[in-house]
Design brief:
By secondary structure, this protein is mainly α. It contains 17 helices and no strands. α15 runs antiparallel to α17. The protein is flat and about 65 Å long. The N and C termini lie far apart (74 Å).
């Protein structure tokens, strides 16, 4: 009876690298054919042309595979990057950091470490138990969902590097300043009593280093986990964008979300807070709003409120924060988002 000899580690790594290179090349080839293929598919739909429904359908047929392909590539790349930043290592890096530089480090780490609304409580408790100051913890909690690497990648690909860079810079600024302000208020007494009783615990860091093949597998696992969970929300966001693209007159949207109406920014924030969407799902809506003439500051304020002040995350955080501390959190972060919205509308 013959047995197969496992390939040596170096050979397995070469196979994974070659397979990944081929898959990425195939991705770019398919992406280059997306426009003509979607045009042909949209032309087959039994819809009157020209017409609003036909325009909306063409938008949906093209944007859906485009955004999902971009999402897959971005998530895969960031899955590899995230393999260098475990939550345990993040806690150790931030533990003992003082406010100021600690807020900057926390906000920066929040952009590349695994985080979502469902993990808000475990991450918060892990930081508190590791001795991370409250203000530094909030800088991380604000930056992680708002300055989301998936959102930045999609903004760059769909809207442009200027908008993506501006969103990144001001998102980080809000996270740093908001965390610093909350830290200066010394509101540790407003944590839930059982949270204050937590004792510092040493975080464990995996000792075994990851190979390149392991990191590629981490990227594939991120695609399976994230894209598998959010693709319906992405499709829903594209459907909303298609409706805006096809049926909402540019003049109406400009009147509601234009820079000339002072109340448009706070209204956009209030509308965004109760919405339940992820960063990937809201970017197509942002693309459609900007395409219809909505002001950049108002649109970015809307997006920031959806991803940073979402109602589901606030409800989850209620397990560890008192209502007074949640109100301070919403007030400080909301003020920063309003300032960004007004500033962008004034400058651009």
């Amino acid at each position: 009876m013959s047995t197969t000899t496992p390939a040596p580690p170096a050979e397995r790594t070469s196979l994974w690298l070659a397979g990944t290179t081929g898959a990425v090349a195939l991705w770019f080839a398919l992406y280059s054919l997306l426009q003509p293929l979607s045009d042909r598919l949209a032309a087959l739909l039994p819809l009157a042309r020209p017409g609003r429904l036909a325009d909306a359908a063409a938008f949906f047929v093209y944007e859906t595979p485009k955004v999902l392909m971009l999402l897959t590539l971005v998530v895969f790349a960031m899955g590899i990057v995230r393999s260098f930043f475990s939550p345990e290592r993040t806690r150790v890096v931030l533990a003992g950091r003082r406010e100021g530089l600690g807020n900057i480090a926390a906000a920066a780490l929040g952009t590349v470490t695994p985080f979502c609304s469902c993990s808000a409580v475990p991450m918060f408790l892990g930081f508190v138990s590791a001795g991370v100051p409250l203000g530094v913890t909030f800088s991380f909690l604000i930056a992680a969902p708002m300055v989301n690497e998936v959102a930045l990648g999609l903004l760059f690909a769909l809207i442009g590097w200027r908008v993506a860079l501006a969103y990144f810079a001001f998102g980080l600024l809000i996270a740093i300043v908001s965390g610093w302000v909350i830290g200066r208020l010394h509101l540790e007494a407003w944590l839930e009593p059982w949270v204050r009783e937590l004792r510092s615990a040493a975080a464990q860091i995996p000792a075994s280093p990851l190979t390149p093949a392991d990191r590629i597998k981490a990227g594939l696992e991120a695609v399976q986990d994230i894209v598998g969970k959010v693709w319906l929300w992405v499709a829903a966001g594209i459907a909303v964008g298609a409706f805006i693209h096809g049926f909402v007159p540019a003049g109406v949207l400009a009147a509601i979300m234009g820079r000339g109406t002072w109340w448009s920014v706070p209204a956009a924030v209030l509308i965004g807070i109760p919405m339940y969407s992820n960063a990937a799902g809201i970017v197509p809506v942002v693309e459609a709003l900007l395409g219809k003439g909505a002001a950049l500051g108002t649109t970015l304020a809307f997006m920031m409120s959806v991803v940073a002040l979402s109602l589901p995350e606030t409800i989850i955080l209620r397990k560890v924060l008192t209502l007074r501390l949640i109100a301070v959190f919403i007030g400080v972060v909301g003020s920063g988002i309003l300032a960004v919205g007004f500033l962008f509308n004034l400058i651009f």
